Amino acid sequence: MWYLLIFTLLFISMLLYFKIASFYGIVDNPNERSSHSVSTIRGGGIIFWISICIFFIVSKASFPYFFLGLTLISIISFIDDLKTLPNWIRLAVQVISVGLFFYEIQLFNQVSYWLIFPFFIFSVGIINAYNFMDGINGMTGSYSSILIFTFWIINTFHKEFIEGEILYYVFISLQVFNLFNFRTKAKCFAGDIGSISMAAIILFLLFKLIKVEGNYIYILFLSVYGIDTIQTIIFRLLKRENIFQAHKRHLFQILVNEKKLSHLYVSALYSFIQLGINLCVILSIVNGINSLFSTLVILVVLNLFYIYVRYRRAT
What we know:
Blueprint: H1 2-24, E1 27-28, E2 40-42, H2 46-58, H3 64-82, H4 87-104, H5 113-130, H6 139-158, H7 164-181, E3 188-189, H8 191-213, H9 223-238, H10 251-257, H11 263-286, H12 291-312
Parallel strand pairs: 2-3
Antiparallel strand pairs: 1-2
Helix pairs in contact: 1-2, 1-7, 2-3, 2-7, 2-8, 3-4, 3-8, 4-5, 5-8, 6-7, 6-8, 6-11, 9-12, 11-12
C-alpha cells in the first residue's frame, strides 16, 4: 500500500511538472543530435530526484552527502535544461558531486590513491554519456530499470549493500517515467536533470556495491552502453571528427535514425542484452568463477558483437 502511495505521489508530481513545463516552454526541440522530430516536454526525469528526496525524508536523512551531491548535480542540470551552461560549470559541479558520493561510501579510505583519479574520470564520463540515451524513447527508463532490478537481486539474494527502500523508490520513479516516455510518441524526455541524475544514482549504487564486495566485475553492469560509447568515440576519431560536437554516431542512434528500427525495439534490445550480462555476472560470482576471466570473456564477446553490427548492418 505504501509503494502504491509513492507511485501515486510521483505520478501526480509528473502531471504537475507537465503543467509547469508547458507554461514556461520547457521543451526539447529537434537538433543535429536528436532522434525525435517534434518538440517534446523536457525534464520529466525530475521525478528521479523527487523519489530520492522522499527516501531521504522518510529514512530520516540517510546518505546525506549522496543526497547533497545529487541535489547539486540535479539543480545545475535543470538550469542547463533551461539555458545552456558553459561546460566548465557543469563539469565542476559533476566532479564535486562525485566527490560527495565517494565520501559518503568512504571510498577514499579503501582504495589506493592512484585509483581515485581514474574513478573520477570514469564517473564523469558515464554521467555525460548517459545523457545521450534521452533522445531514444524508452532507453533511459528501460535500461536504468534493468540496472536497479539487478541491484535489487544482489541486495536481496546475495549481499545487502544498501538500504533496500532506496531501490524501490527509484524503481517506482522509473516506471512512472516509462508511462510517459516508453511509447511511440513520447510525452516527455528525461532532460539533463533526469538522465544525469539517474546516471549519478546508478554510479552511487555501483560504487557502493564495489566498495562492499571489493569486486570490480560489477562495472560490467554498464557494459552494453559503455562499450557503445567507447566504440563510438573510437569510430569518430578514426573518421577525424570532433568528438566534442553533437552527433548521431552511437550505434543505437544509427539503428533508429538510419536503419529505421523502432525506438522501443532498440531500447528493449539494449536493456535485455544488459540484463543477460548482469545475470551472467551474478552467476559467475555465486559459482566462484574467476572474475577476471568472466570479465574478459564478456568484454570480448560484446565488443565483437558491436563491431559486427556496426560495420555489417549500420555502415
